[in-house]
Structure formats: structure tokens, C-alpha cells
Amino acid sequence: MTPSALIFDVDGTLAETEELHRQAFNETFAAEALPWNWDAPAYRRLLEVAGGKERIAHFLQSQPDGAARAVGRIAELHAAKTGRYTALVAAGATLRPGVARLIREAKAAGVRLAIATTTSLPNVEALLGASLGQGAMTLFDVVGAGDVVPAKKPAADIYQYVLERLALPAARCVAFEDSTNGVRAALGAGLATIVTPGIYTEGDDFSGALAVLSDLGEPEAPYRHLAGAGAADTMVTLDALGRWLESA
After folding, report:
1. What keywords were assigned to this record (predicted)?
2. Based on the domain organization, do 154 and 37 belong to the same domain?
């Protein structure tokens, strides 16, 4: 059963972008003379909160020093951070192995493509433009990003939003994720889910995923199978996805 649509998360899934996000947050804090710097262990914990504005708000709850003057500026700080992030991405961003290949294969086969992410739309546009070129957004039939739904992952809202606009049942689609929150959101919408853990999500709980793989694989660089379907394959292809769905 060839899927009718492939639905991709963005950060950590399409590309390893979380370090750029962390850098942009820290540069913003420094520019605003705020006494915070998120190191990698702290950022890993903060990633349990989906959404940049929500992440800042969560952090402020535990930071009495300077928090009072920043709490009313969350949207402003996030906007400044987004500007820094998009500039970093534009300077050079590469997709994870197999992503561009699978997107090309899907387009050639008439399989629809969609985005389901909690990151803001300018971040999506910057990454896709830098990695796939001008007009990359038109490759996707539906883009669900940022605040288009009231509840962010692990709530299933963003996937339900995308499915409604694709006008397809969840059983005909496959989601691609990298985190526990993402998997919970996709499974909550009834989607078979392929997981490629990122640098901040290795060791997360991916219970219920159809397959857990190091990446989507390339002819010269096969993926490493971690769990679930895909042990006998070397790349995520439409044919492989069809076989995995049928055997699930």
C-alpha cells in the first residue's frame, strides 16, 4: 500500500537545526542584556516544551532574576530570536540523509507532501529555501506551522489540522518525527510514524512508532536500523513504506 501522503516534522527531522535554535536564543538573550545562556543539557530539557514562545515562558517560571522585566516581552524576544535563526539557516543548512531523495521520489510518484510542526512559518520557509532552493514551499500541499492550532505537540492538533486540509484519512498517510512529543502527536492523530532521532532526542521513548531509524538512508550511506520495521531495508522508499504499512 503506497502512502497517499508523507507528513514531515521540521526541526530535528528534516534537518539538525536545534543547535542553530539554541545559538539564536542565546544571542538574543545576550543582545537584550538578559543573564541567561542555555547550554546543551539545559536545552535538551527545554525541548520537552514544544514551541519557542512556550519554551521561553516555561524557562522564565524558574528564573526570578530578570524574569519580571522579560515576561511581558516573550513575543518580542521570540521574534528577535526568529530573525537570528533564519539568518543562521540562510547561511547554510543541509537536510538529513535521505530527506531530499524521498521528497523527490514522492513528488515523482504523485504522493502528496505536508509539514506538521510547532516551529514558526518563517523558520520553515528559511530552512526549505536554504536547503531545497527557491520555491521549495510549493513542494508541500499543506504546511501546518506555528500557532495555527491552539495546542502544540504532544497534542495531536497540528496533525489533525494537516489531515483535514489534505482531506485524507490517517491510515493513508505516514508521519516523520524525531521526538517523543512528536511521536505522541502523530500517533494521537492515528498516523503510522517513522522516527529518526536527532542529536537532542536520542534515547527518547518512541513507543508505538512503525520504525526507528538513524536517518532515511542514501544509496551510498544506508540507515542504521534501531527498532520496528525496516530491518531488512537500507533506505526509506515509497515501496518500503508500503510494505511496512501492510505488515503493521
Report:
1. Hydrolase
2. no
User: Looking at residue 99, which CATH number applies to its domain?
Assistant: 3.40.50.1000
Name beta bridge partners: 227.
212
Q: Which residues are catalytic?
A: 9, 11
Please state, in angstroms and rounded to a whole number, the distance separating the CA atoms of residues 174 and 5. 7
pLDDT tens digits, one per residue of 86-128: 898 888 788 999 999 999 999 999 999 999 998 889 999 999 9
CB atoms within 10 A of CB 138: 8
Supply the range of the domain harboring residue 41: 18-90
> Do 149 and 239 fall into the same domain?
yes
> What is the DSSP secondary-structure string of the chain?
---SEEEE--BTTTB--HHHHHHHHHHHHHHTT-S----HHHHHHHTTS-SHHHHHHHHHTT--TTHHHHGGGHHHHHHHHHHHHHHHHHT---PPTTHHHHHHHHHHHT-EEEEE-SS-HHHHHHHHHHHH-TTGGGG-SEEE-TTSSSS-TTSSHHHHHHHHHHT--GGGEEEEE-SHHHHHHHHHTT-EEEE---TTTTT---TT-SEEESSS-BTTBPPPEEEES-TT-SS--HHHHHHHHHH-
CATH number at residue 45: 1.10.150.240
Same domain as 206, residue 168: yes
Choose the final residue of a domain: 43, 62, 90: 90
